[in-house]
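Supplementary Methods, section 5.1.

A reviewer requested that the exact input to the structure prediction be made available. We therefore reproduce it here, unchanged from the version used in the analyses.
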Amino acid sequence: MGRPPNARSEPDHVFGRPLSQCPACGSDQLEPVVEIHHEEVHFFCRDCGRCWRVELGYVHRVSPPTCAGCLERTRCEAVYAADHPDAHEDENERTRS
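The structure derived from this sequence is encoded token-by-token as follows.
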């Protein structure tokens, strides 16, 4: 069969990351983190401590409780709580009730 006559020979490409910069701080220090229970790959920003997932062309912030066993969870929880003070207060209200 072969290639069509006008087809160019393209070198093999290494799969690129779907997220090249942190949406919050713009850093390129994103580390892939595999979430085994949900079979997802999240991207943890080493500079700001936020974690992201890419799904269907959209970037979503990851909620720390969904990342069981992550080594960065403590830092991620602290940053998430600072970014979402109302959610943290609501959680404290529920645990008191």
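Residues 85-96 form the longest helix (12 residues). These observations are discussed further in the main text.
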